[in-house]
Automatic annotation (TrEMBL):
Residues 787-832 have a biased composition (Low complexity). InterPro entries: ARM-like, ARM-type_fold, RPN1_C, RPN1_N. Gene3D superfamilies: Leucine-rich Repeat Variant. Residues 747-840 are annotated as: Disordered. This is 26S proteasome regulatory subunit. It comes from Theileria orientalis strain Shintoku. Residues 1052-1100 form the 26S proteasome non-ATPase regulatory subunit RPN1 C-terminal domain. The keyword Nucleotide-binding does not apply. GO terms for cellular component: nucleus; proteasome regulatory particle, base subcomplex; proteasome storage granule. Keywords: Proteasome, Repeat. Residues 39-448 form the RPN1 N-terminal domain. One of its GO terms (biological process) is proteasome-mediated ubiquitin-dependent protein catabolic process.
């Protein structure tokens, strides 16, 4: 703030300035102990703090007094050195000097004064704070009628304290009254803001932080009544005593750090209490966070509903920006306690879920006495796949038993709502309201696409009809995705209708007999499995009718169809937990089958059905399959199933089993695989399983990180994956920087590596393709490799399909991981063992580059700033990264933008679909499908049509394109893949697990997802959920309520009551809500039991 220019003073201002100058001059000529000094200072303070109540401008008194700041400061120091007696005038002088320090002078100080100030170390820069603290100390001593100035006897030692009657200054009753009326806000809010800034700066110094850490850790400091500092042993004996001085001790002259900290904390308490009580709660929270005292906000917040809402929303939002995981947890704990104290149970359970604290979840359920609110909490828990009756620990089980004892009928209702058994009927009701219940045929989706795009079902070549198993599989996925959850479709099983569904209890007497031309049997190998399993997507959440529709396929004579039906059983119950638990009875017996395909289907079904249920009985059944490497597929997907069941729990038995089998796999791979070298695609999936077990566990993953050292060369890759999952959605900047270092080191490793051989350039799946100097892929080399790869992979797939041996999958999966070129296979067979080790080391680096890019997206997920910066962070790998990095970029972008086709993201992915590297193009097309999943976005659809027009000759590309189109129109525009809910605050771990399996597999999209394991796309079913708002009354009946839906607006931290949505439209529920949108009730006659209008929400009439 600048002082008023002398040249522009009016006559009145000049007169006013002369009056103030004369008062200051008179004060400087008086002794501070005189009554005249107190009178003059009272006048100066009155002038400084009263300027017609206008707080938006600098009072003229301050503009004129600022020139006397140095003189007043010197006046105080002279008094302290000569007399030092406490009096009320001293308090006023200290506060006035402190107040003047809050004003920054625009005129430069004289050279002499500037030099003098620079000679001092830290005290001048904190005069504002120190003089205020000194004023508080003097005022406190005056009120207690004790003068604590040390007296020096003849031996140079301190004597005992003396009362005020030893001095000439006597405190009058009027002065005592003025001292008692002192408030922290006497000098205005702007002064408090400046004071707060200086407090933050003081606590930011290294010396202060260290002293404050000692203070918080409980180190005993003693300040005696003379102002000296003594440090005590634990037994209370004096160890060190401050030097006696012949002048009084002050924080200004001595700058006693411990005394400053103690007095500052008292001042902070006063400031924050005032701020919270007067509408400046955000300033109070910020200051308390800076000094690590956020817990004290709990006593300052009253039970006012609006105040609690503002404080808790602000605390929840800033928890994303905690410097450490523990700091964020502390903020959330305070938020939880405030909400629970004020009986805001839905919001409290939301915070408990963010903390991943199931004990607090049960505490909310036990504390809540409102039956309707308990129903809403149960519905809210189902959105996060948390089931009350499956919580495993003894404390939680006891809490659950306490709930059931209170009200048996209520308990049944809560469990029913928590299991999600009503989701299918509500979804069908919404589809009927929106008039989209009628199923769609894939040909209807592709109707507007170019005729030469090979997207139609009736393809001909020279007038002869052709039938491709891969094309048929893509149509199957399209039909399953677009009719997802509707229990009806027109391609796979068109004869079935829900109304005609009957139970097939006597299945043995009614064995399935395939009809000629039935669609399921127009596939080969794993395609047959995917065709029958895709019925699980069609009947998603509909256990009653879905199990009946799928039942006949488990009796098929084809082993692949039977296996797919087992997976379909699990898909049907994704996010739904039936009281009868039919999936357990249907699938557990199949785990003992001698046919590895049946075991594989049962494993997939159990993984789909029991996500985040912590079922210990299934753990005992699956661990033997995990460690059994006689069937690599069963071992691999058993580990994934276990990690999904115990996602985010860090289950020790599962972690030990997966780590054990991974070590065995790495050491004995050659014993059952004819091709030397490790299959890194399988290794990546094992590491993914370990990462999912540690999802969002933060520092609790440290023991597993230590155990990963046994992996040797793969340690860095393993640590990167596990640690990234442990800190997923945290936005941890340090972790992101470490991942970026992995990417930067890739360029150095490339420069130091020897020139690529012909063998290296011909390997399409894992080896680094030739790059130009700028890091872009050599188009000619990539094109030739693509053709060779497709031909070889197709041959491998056909061999696998025609084989009748149930264990043939082991051989085919092993062959798929070798070089696809015959020349490359010959070269690798003749290579020396040392060359194989060098190749393994290069593959370790390549694997690290790819997963590091995905892990950056994993850390940025759910954090708005991090998600927005992700595109800029990935510019480096796109421009000058390795092939593996560039292939991972579209997948990383898709992960943080699931079902959110923002124009910037669509434009980026659109460019990557035309990349010279065909693998980057494939990944970009899949990423476009994931970004637009369930949105019916017209721009993405138009891009797909353009790609189909120019690339229809590439069979693999068209397969991925068809699947992506199915994702785009998923659920006819009613579903979403986003793992975030509750306005993006909470993470559904099961949904993220399903997405992670698909995305990490897509790092080798052509070979792993399109050929080896096409059923990996079924894992998306775990992430599918309706993007809806359905309103029910307290009797759980659907009611149509006017609702406004618009773009979400961040109003946290803003003044007043701002509108939280913009560009809204008013509809009647049920309504669809996209990513980045928010809903609010458009009527005052109804109120919701949840402040977050998404999913299933209970509403009630407003009580008069």
């Amino acid at each position: 703030m600048a002082s008023k220019s002398k040249e522009k003073l009016s006559e009145a201002d000049e007169s006013y300035k002369e009056e103030l100058d004369s008062l200051v001059a008179e004060l400087l000529n008086l002794d501070l102990t005189s009554s005249q000094s107190e009178t003059i200072l009272l006048k100066l303070v009155d002038h400084a703090t009263n300027d017609f109540g206008n707080i938006s401008t600098i009072p003229k008194a301050l503009q004129f007094l600022i020139s006397h700041k140095v003189a007043l400061d010197e006046y105080y120091k002279r008094y302290t050195m000569t007399n030092g007696e406490d009096n009320y005038a001293l308090v006023l002088l200290l506060e006035l000097v402190s107040f003047l320090e809050a004003i920054n002078m625009s005129e430069p100080a004289p050279k002499g004064e500037k030099k003098e100030e620079t000679e001092k170390e830290e005290t001048p820069s904190f005069k504002l704070l120190l003089y205020k603290l000194e004023a508080n100390l003097v005022a406190a001593r005056l009120l207690t009628q004790i003068n604590v100035g040390p007296q020096i006897n003849g031996h140079g030692r301190e004597t005992v304290e003396f009362k005020d009657d030893r001095y000439s200054y006597k405190i009058s009753e009027k002065t005592k009254e003025l001292l008692r009326k002192r408030k922290v806000n006497d000098w205005g809010n702007e002064y408090l803001t400046s004071l707060s800034s200086q407090i933050v700066a003081y606590f930011a110094m290294a010396s202060t932080r260290q002293a404050y850490v000692n203070y918080l850790l409980g180190k005993k400091f003693h300040l005696n009544k003379y102002g000296t500092h003594k440090e005590l042993h634990k037994n209370g004996n004096v160890e060190k005593e401050g030097k006696p001085k012949n002048t009084r001790q002050t924080v200004v002259l001595e700058n006693n750090v411990n005394l400053v900290i103690e007095e500052t904390l008292k001042l902070i308490e006063e400031m924050t209490t005032y701020w919270v009580a007067n509408g400046f709660e955000f300033d109070a929270i910020d200051l308390l966070l800076e000094v690590d005292r956020i817990e004290s906000i709990r006593e300052k917040v009253s039970d006012d509903h609006d105040l609690v809402t503002r404080v808790t929303n602000y605390l929840a939002s800033i928890s994303f920006y905690g410097a450490t995981y523990n700091e964020s947890a502390r903020i959330l704990h305070v938020t939880y306690e405030l909400l629970l104290r004020n009986k805001r149970y839905v919001e409290a359970v939301r915070i408990a879920l963010k903390l991943n604290d199931h004990v607090r979840v049960m505490e909310v359920l036990n504390s809540c006495e409102d039956k309707n609110v308990l129903k809403q909490v149960s519905l809210f828990l189902n959105t996060s796949n948390l089931y009350i009756n499956t919580l495993a620990t003894s404390e939680l089980a006891a809490s659950a038993a306490a709930i059931s004892k209170n009200d048996a009928e209520l308990d049944e209702t809560l469990v029913y709502l928590n299991r999600g058994e009503n989701r299918s009927s509500l979804f069908m009701s919404m589809c009927k309201e929106l008039d989209i219940l009628e199923p769609k045929h894939p040909s209807e989706v592709f109707k507007g696409y170019p005729s030469k795009s090979n997207l139609s079902l009736n393809q001909t070549l020279s007038g002869v009809s052709i039938d491709s198993a891969r094309d048929n599989l893509s149509y199957t996925f399209v039909s399953a995705f677009i009719n997802c959850g509707s229990s009806m479709e027109k391609l796979i099983n068109p004869q079935y209708r829900p109304s005609a569904a009957t139970s097939t209890t006597n299945a043995a007497a009614e064995l399935f007999k395939p009809k000629d031309g039935e669609w399921v049997f127009k596939h080969q190998g794993y395609g047959l499995m995917c065709a029958s399993a895709s019925l699980g997507l069609v009947h998603l959440w509909n256990l009653d009718e879905g199990l009946s529709a799928i039942d006949k396929y488990q009796y098929s004579s084809d082993q692949y169809v039977r296996s797919g039906s087992y997976a379909a059983f699990g898909l049907v119950s994704c996010g739904v937990m039936s009281e009868m638990d039919p999936i357990h009875g249907l699938l557990t017996d199949k785990l003992d089958s001698t046919n590895y395909l049946e075991r594989l289907g049962a494993i997939l079904g159990l993984g789909f059905a029991y996500g985040a249920t912590n079922r210990m009985d299934l753990l005992e059944l699956l661990i033997p399959l995990v460690i059994d490497l006689s069937s690599v597929e069963c071992s691999l997907f058993s580990s994934l199933a276990l990690s999904i069941m115990f996602v985010g729990t860090g289950n020790q038995e599962s972690s030990e089993a997966i780590l054990q089998v991974l070590m065995e796999y790495l050491t004995s791979y050659e014993s059952y695989n004819p091709t030397p070298g490790v299959n890194y695609k399988h290794v990546r999936m094992y590491l993914l399983s370990l990462g999912l077990l540690q999802l969002c566990r933060g520092e609790l993953c440290e023991p597993l990180l230590e155990a990963l050292k046994v992996l040797g060369p793969l340690e860095k890759v393993a640590v990167t994956v596990v640690e990234s999952f442990a800190y997923a959605t945290s936005g941890d900047v340090l972790k992101i920087q470490s991942l970026l270092k992995n990417l930067i080191s890739s360029k150095t490793a490339q420069e130091e590596a020897p020139a690529a051989t012909d063998k290296d350039s011909m390997d399409m799946d894992l080896d680094v393709a030739p790059t130009t100097s700028s890091g872009s892929i050599n188009g000619a080399s990539g094109g030739g490799t693509t053709g060779s790869d497709s031909a070889s992979a197709s041959a491998t797939s056909n061999a696998n399909t025609s084989s009748g041996n149930t264990n043939s999958g082991n051989t085919s999966s092993g062959n798929a991981n070798t070089s696809t070129s015959n020349n490359a296979n010959t070269s690798s067979g003749n290579a020396a063992q040392s060359d194989v080790k060098d190749d393994d080391q290069e593959r370790n680096l390549e694997e690290l580059y790819g997963v590091s890019v995905l892990c950056i997206a994993l850390l940025s997920l759910g954090e708005n700033i991090g998600s927005g910066m992700l595109v800029r962070l990935l510019e480096h790998p796109l421009q000058c990264g390795t092939v593996q990095e560039r292939r991972a970029v579209p997948l990383a972008v898709a992960l943080v933008n699931m079902s959110n086709p923002a124009p910037q993201i669509v434009s980026l992915l659109s460019k990557l679909t035309h990349d010279s590297d065909r693998e980057v193009s494939l990944n970009a097309i899949l990423a476009l499908g994931l970004v637009g999943a369930g949105t019916n976005n017209s721009r993405v659809s138009q891009l797909f049509q353009t790609i189909a027009k120019h690339s229809y000759r590439d069979a693999t590309l068209m397969y991925v394109l068809r699947v992506s189109v199915g994702l785009l129109f998923m659920g006819k525009g009613t579903l979403t893949l986003s793992p975030l809910h509750s306005e993006g605050f909470l993470l559904n771990k099961v949904a993220l697990a399903g997405l992670a399996v698909v995305l990490f597999s897509a790092l080798d999209l052509r070979s792993l997802v399109c050929e080896d394991f096409p059923f990996l796309m079924l894992f998306l079913g775990m992430a599918i959920r309706p993007r809806w708002l359905v309103t029910l009354n307290t009797e759980l009946q659907v009611v149509n309520v006017p609702v406004r839906v618009g773009a979400s607006v961040d109003t946290i931290g803003t003044a007043g009551k701002q509108r939280r949505i913009s560009g809204f439209q008013t509809h009647k529920s049920p309504v669809l809500i996209g990513v980045g949108e928010r809903a609010e009730l458009a009527t005052e006659d109804m109120e919701s039991l949840s402040p977050y209008l998404e999913g299933i929400v209970l509403v009630s009439n407003v009580s008069s």
